[in-house]
Amino acid sequence: MAIGECVDVENGEVNGLEELQEPFIQQDKIVSNESDHKSVESGSIGTVLLSTFVAVCGSFEFGSCVGYSAPTQSAIREDLKLSLAEYSMFGSILTIGAMLGAITSGRVADFIGRKGAMRISAGFCIVGWLAIYFSTGAFPLDMGRLFTGYGIGVFSYVVPIFIAEIAPKNLRGGLTTLNQLMIVIGSSVAFLIGTLITWRTLALTGLVPCIFLLVGLCFVPESPRWLAKVGHQKEFQAALKRLRGKNADITCEAAEIQDYIETLKSLPKAKLMDLFQSKHIRSVIIGIGLMICQQFVGINGIGFYASETFASAGLSSGKIGTIAYACVQVPITLVGAILMDKSGRRPLIMTSATGTFLGCFLAGTSFILKSHSLLLEWVPIFAVAGVLIYIASFSIGLGSVPWLIMSEIFPINVKGAAGSLVVLVNWLGAWAISYTFNFLMSWSASGTFFIYSAFSVMTVLFVAKLVPETKGKTLEEIQACINS
């Protein structure tokens, strides 16, 4: 599932991968890299690493929730006598909850702090998993899924924000990429162990990262930036000192944080209608267009119901394909992260969309062969190969690049409103695809994959025609390119 990095509605920022790698403050004074390096060396990163590990338990939980429905579809439908429509609602309602969580996450995290927001997220997920475990019908099952969706919607915002706010600038990029990596690992683990245990037991495993998170939060400091923002100066100094080490000089960094907060307060807050001014409209088209392309190539349908798709293709056990799916995601996501700043945004996303086209076309062809009783021994092989090519291609570019581009194309004064709009479109697309997938497969399995392959072609054309290359450009250069 494609995951947005985070949207700061309160502060008017969208924090994507590239922004999280950059300093939070554009300083008037230039501090030498040498002095920064010495400052970090003199401190201790042990607390930073511990805090990051605790936070990414929320990312792992995100992945666990996303991956839960793929290996459990047939068992849940059989045990609870669910219709196709009822299970489709169960699978897709996660995205509704996540949309609600994402919309409210900025205010929650600003009101009770980053740690408080993570505790609330974990609480929602725990209640949701228990509701799923004890379910005897569709309604408690859906409510449990909705609760876990809300929890991961908040996690999707607060985890990368927390990591970015506690990390030294020279470690920020590497540590924040752990968020996306742990989401993929959590999803893959759910895929794998879901093939070995019952769906009720799998629901209980979703409690484990929540418990680790809640316990770990007792031993890590709150975000210094949030403490400074709410005026807790004493706690702010103590938290920053703890994160940088008792021998570190935090004077400069503390002053930078205070300057940054004052700068944010002075910026005007843009409204939604401001986005439709002529100077912003192309950026809005690019941002929304990329999210539509990302979702309508079918990732949440194929990912949520992978096991049943493999079984429909005639594979003796859907578990085999699901295990292969899980094993492909993690290494390819790592490759995509490495290529992000080497190959450029446009080539990576166009290559990714070309791969999803080939994967969907191959899977669609397998179902055509099956319907005409041709090359039946090859049908499962084509289906598995198609889906694996698809997920590998999606993971290398379409999964993360649209979010990175979104973080780069909007001026800072409209990023909050623009991010809210784009995230809303993304989650609505996720719901539409995850809800309609099973119905489309019942109508025509081959037609479903050919529709997704057509959207993949449209993605290549859209990027080639409208999306600028943003690699190596300042935000001002990107704006000039978009508006030229």
Descriptive overview:
- By secondary structure, the chain is mainly α.
- It folds into two domains: 1-267, MFS general substrate transporter like domains (Growth Hormone, Chain: A, Up-down Bundle); 270-484, Growth Hormone, Chain: A (Up-down Bundle), CATH 1.20.1250.
- It is built from 22 helices and two strands.
- It has a two-stranded antiparallel sheet.
- α3 packs parallel to α7 (169-194), α3 packs antiparallel against α9 and α5 (84-133) crosses α9.
- Mean pLDDT is 82; it is low at 3-43.
Give the key terms:
about 475 residues; mainly alpha; Growth Hormone, Chain: A; 2 domains; 22 helices; 2 strands; about 80% helix
Question: Which strand order do you get reading across the main beta sheet?
Answer: 1-2
Largest sheet: 2 strands, antiparallel
Query: What share of residues is helical?
Result: over 70%
How many structurally independent domains?
2
Mean pLDDT figure = 82
Oligomeric form of this entry?
A: single chain
The CATH superfamily of the largest domain turns out to be: MFS general substrate transporter like domains
Number of helices: 22
Report low-confidence residues grouped into runs of 5 or more. 3-43
- Assess the beta-strand content as a share of residues: under 5%
Radius of gyration: 22 Å
Anisotropy-based shape: globular
H and E string: EEHHHHHHHHHHHHHHHHHHHHHH
The strand count comes to 2
- SS content category: mainly alpha
Q: Based on the coordinates given, report the CATH architecture of the largest domain.
A: Up-down Bundle
Distance between the termini: 34 Å
